[in-house]
Structures are given as C-alpha cells and as structure tokens.
Design goal:
- It is built from 15 helices and eleven strands.
- The protein has helices at residues 18-25, 43-49, 63-72, 90-102, 168-178, 185-197, 201-213, 219-235, 239-248, 257-269, 273-285, 298-301, 304-315, 319-332, 337-354; strands spanning 5-11, 31-36, 53-56, 78-81, 86-87, 109-115, 120-129, 135-137, 143-145, 150-159, 296-297.
- The strands form two sheets. Strands 1, 2, 3, 4, 5, 6, 7, 10 and 11 form a nine-stranded mixed sheet that branches. A two-stranded antiparallel sheet has the order 8-9.
- α1 (18-25) links the parallel β1 and β2 (31-36).
- α6 packs antiparallel against α7 (201-213), α10 packs antiparallel against α11 and α10 runs parallel beside α13.
- The longest helix has 18 residues, at 337-354.
- It starts with a strand and ends with a helix.
- This is Glycosyltransferase.
C-alpha cells in the first residue's frame, strides 16, 4: 500500500510560479499545504483553485519558523517540501510516483538531487517521515535536521528561478548581527556568502574567516568558503591571495574540480599556460564524490576543464591537443555552438600546420 504524502510550501507573491509547480506535482500527493507569509498578489487565489489548504503566517524574518509551521499542518505519512519555483520534470514525476508506491515506512528521510541550473546541482533531504517530528533550523538559509534511516532517491527537483536575487537575506543577517543574536558556524558562512554576492568583499572575507576560525563547519562548506575567499581576493585584484586560498581548500579533503578550475583560470589569465594546463588536467580527471550533499558546479566536473584545455593548447599552438579536448567537451554538450565552431577552427589550423 502506498504511503500518503503532504506537500508543504511557504509562499509570498508567487502567482507566477505556484501554478506551474503544482501542475507538475500536485496530482502526485495527497494534500498540499500552502503557508502564506503576506502575499499581495493572486497567490492564495491560485492555491485555492488547486484545492490547497491555505494558512496565514505573520512574517518574522525567520524561514525556519514558517517552514515548521507548514510542517505542523501536514497530516499524511510523509512530508514533501518544495519552493514555489521548483518543478518535477516528466521523468522525475514517474520516479516520484514509483517512490511513493514502494517507500517502506521504516524510512525516516529521502534525499533528492536539486538542479538549480543546468550546471549547478546538489542534494536535499526532501521527503521526511512526519511522525519523526523533524524540524527546520536557521532564520536564513534554513536546513532540515534529519537522522536515522535516510535513503538517496534518483528523483531530481528542478529549480525554475523567476525572482531576481535580492538583498533580503543579507538584510535579515545584518539585523540579527546588529542586535547580537548568536550566529552558528553555518550562519557565519551564509552571511559571508550574502556579503560576497552583494560585492562587499572585505566584510565577506571577515566573516569567512570567522566561520573558518570556529573549526566547526561542515567540511563541504569549509572547502567552499576557501573558494569564495579566493574569489573575494580575485575581485579585489590580489591574485597572490586568490591562489593561496584556492590551494588552502586542499587541506580539508581531496581536491574539488571547482577549485582546480579556479586555479586554472587564474593562471590562464596570467598567460601561465603550463600551470593552467596542469590544473585543468587535474580537474578533468576528478570524479564526483559519492553520496555528496554539497552544491556542485557540474560544468567543472564535465566539459569546462576540457574546453579550457582547448583554449590553452590553442594558445600554445598545439592544435591536435586542442582539438582532442574540444571533442571531449562536445561529448557533454553536442549542440554547443562555441565548441562546434572550435571544431572547424582546430581542423583548419591542423591542416595549415601540416601543409
């Protein structure tokens, strides 16, 4: 017998996205909980047309509080959470339906891949056993704390961003910091990310350092913080420190392709082609860590290092190697116009060189 599933949202002014999301997943669940945090558009009317259970929640600058309230209204065996600009593509709807039919009630949580763009992905614990009472933690960049029997699903949740990046999260962090509220290591890391995204590089570096000084962050966040620190220095024109911080990430685990591509880019920009070739080659040989939950730039683990190697070898006059790596890049992106143009160019250059 299939388990029952409650789908939970928190929403504010999602008239452009909520219907599209529910069209892809609403028929797969047994109830939909929409917690509205102050919409002034047609969000609640649209939710009503889909038969959602709608609740109002006064916004208190705390995403975890809103999500926990939504979870408290669920009545099914399991709770599935999405944002209004997420969707399930057709293949993933089939996988989700099968998961629902076969899920054993001893499972406490199910993780699913999360595709933020075609090249950026990670994993999230998306489906949780309601009776376990799992809670959301964190006012901003909240996370669902789960434990027990957790399985990995092949379902992919696709993010279909409509809203522009804003300073909303940064302002929440700033307000909490200004009144002396405690910040966890995770809070420090995400505060630094918001500062960096808003081009406040010096303050971002300060808070990345505060985060690293705790020695209590998740290793993937620590590695990413080194990379973000590197980006801050690069934006400020200090390439020596940019390289140092990219290299520092290797202290914490095996090299990540993102950091190797970052180093390759720095050296390519300085026309240090042999160094650039070295780091792009390393990136091209790495394998994605198994059971990862981190955000990954898929391009760094697939086509990008090969495309950049083609650029490097082209500048070195080695058109055979340039052609070789461009062909590998094309195997990942067979319709990419840049790579197709490269193919023609490298073949012409090889012929000229051989004549």
């Amino acid at each position: 017998m299939a388990v029952t599933i409650s789908l939970c949202f928190i929403c504010k002014n999602e008239e452009k996205t909520l219907g599209k999301c529910l069209d892809t997943v609403g028929h797969l669940v047994d109830e939909v909980i929409v917690v509205d945090t102050g919409s002034t558009d047609d969000t609640k009317r649209i939710a009503a047309t889909y038969g959602c259970k709608i609740y109002d929640f006064e916004w208190i600058d705390d995403f975890a509080a809103a999500r926990n309230y939504a979870f408290s209204k669920a009545t099914s065996d399991y709770i599935f959470w999405l944002d209004a600009d997420d969707v399930l593509l057709e293949a993933d709807r089939e996988k989700f339906s099968k998961l629902k039919e076969t899920l054993d009630t001893s499972v406490d949580a199910v993780s699913m891949a999360y595709a933020l763009t075609s090249d950026v992905s990670g994993r999230r614990n998306r489906l949780v056993n309601r009776k376990r009472g799992f809670r959301w933690i964190g006012a901003v960049h909240e996370y669902l704390e789960v434990w027990g029997n957790i399985i990995a699903s092949d379902v992919v949740v696709t993010h279909n961003r409509v809203h522009k990046i804003s300073d909303r999260n940064l302002n929440i962090f700033e307000q909490r910091w200004s009144v002396g509220l405690p910040f966890s290591p995770r809070d420090l890391y995400y505060f630094a990310n918001e500062l960096s995204d808003n081009k406040q590089y010096a303050r971002a570096r300060e808070f990345y350092q505060r985060f690293l000084d705790t020695s209590a962050g998740w290793v993937e966040d620590v590695i990413a913080a080194c990379g973000r620190m590197s980006e801050c220095y690069a934006a400020e024109g200090d390439m020596g420190q940019a390289v140092e911080w990219a290299l520092r990430s290797f202290r914490y685990d095996t090299p990540r392709a993102e950091q190797c591509c970052r180093l390759g880019y720095y050296f390519l920009e300085q026309n240090r082609l042999k160094d650039a070739v070295y780091w792009y080659t390393v990136a091209s040989q790495l394998k994605i860590p198994k059971d990862h939950m981190a955000i990954l730039l898929q391009q760094c683990w697939t086509w990008l290092p090969h495309l950049q190697l083609a650029v490097c070898f082209d500048r070195m006059g080695d058109y055979q190697s340039a052609y070789h790596h461009n062909e590998i890049a094309l195997s990942f992106c067979p319709n990419d116009e840049r790579m197709l143009a490269n193919r023609t160019y490298f073949l012409q250059q090889r012929q000229v060189k051989q004549s």
